[in-house]
Amino acid sequence: MFKNPSFLFDIICTVVWLLLAVRYARKGFLASVVQLAGSLFSLTGARAFSGWAAGQVFQNFFAGSFRDQIAASITAGGGVVDLSGIAQRYAGFLPESFRASIVEACERSISAVLSDNAVVLADVIVQKVLAPLLTPVISLVLFFVAFALLRMLVSLLVTVLGLVNKLPVVGTVNRWLGWTAGGIASLLDIYLVLCVLWALIVITGGNLTVLNDTVMSSSLYYKVFNVFNPFL
Fold first, then answer.
1. What is the pTM of this model?
2. Among 18, 26, 112, 122, which one has the highest count of C-beta atoms within 10 angstroms of its own C-beta?
3. What angle do CA 36, 41, 44 make, to 5 degrees?
4. Is-contact 27 178, C-beta < 8 A?
């Protein structure tokens, strides 16, 4: 039982949940509610922003450079196109099975432009091979960066509201109600930990021995929160 990664994960999550609940409860009800609302806002905002911005970042900062490099490579190679080699060169850190699935899908649709010039062909490769491979990775990075920034702003407000606990009557009620709000707010922190695990599973293609859907599927926290997996 204790050798089961999912069981150990549930134990760790439970301990972390309780510790965070106590921490939030001490801050008081108002601060915990703001923390809860802020976490929901941060998660929602980060997901919406990363989904939109990932494509923009790829097209504006990477696509042009990739297109020029691939076009030059095709011209130097006499028009020979090696999609697997291109995927390996620019996205070699991703699982081979994931790269192969994208390459296979592109090979079926690229034949119509094989006779076009190198620039047109390179653009098709960038949009149909590299974009599907790299955009999800960019989205993951942007998601966590955006969440961290939004959460930082929320934490500043929570610190200010924590001063309410120093008021005699209001402070007592605020602290007691803080336990309920703190318990719920701490669950969102567990959800953030799961977001990190989901991101690792996506990036590694589920090929890690102790971190994949099959191993983690027996985890209570994993099953409950998987409904809200932002990377599905």
1. 0.77
2. 122
3. 125
4. yes
User: What is each CA distance from 223 to 184, 227, 228, in whole angstroms?
Assistant: 18, 7, 10
All residues at 6 or more sequence positions from 74 whose CB lies less than 8 Å from its CB, including other chains:
80, 81, 118, 121, 122
Q: Which residues of the chain have pLDDT under 70?
A: 1-3, 109, 111-116, 158, 160-175, 232
Q: How far apart are CA 35 and CA 178, in angstroms?
A: 11
3-class SS shares of the chain: helix, strand, coil, % to 5? 85, 0, 15
pLDDT of residue 121: 84
Output the DSSP codes for 122-138: HHHHIIIIIHHHHHHHH
- Distance CA(45)–CA(200), nearest Å, equals 21
Best CA proximity match to 228, nearest among 201, 186, 188, 200:
188
8's CB contacts (< 8 A; 6+ apart) are 2
Which uninterrupted H or E stretch holds 56? Answer: helix 29-57
162-178 residue pLDDT tens: 555 555 545 566 667 77
Q: Say what angle helices 64-76 and 118-125 make with each other, to 10 degrees.
A: 130
Nearest alpha carbon to residue 230 among 48, 17, 102: 48
Alpha-carbon gap, residue 26 to 20, rounded angstroms: 10
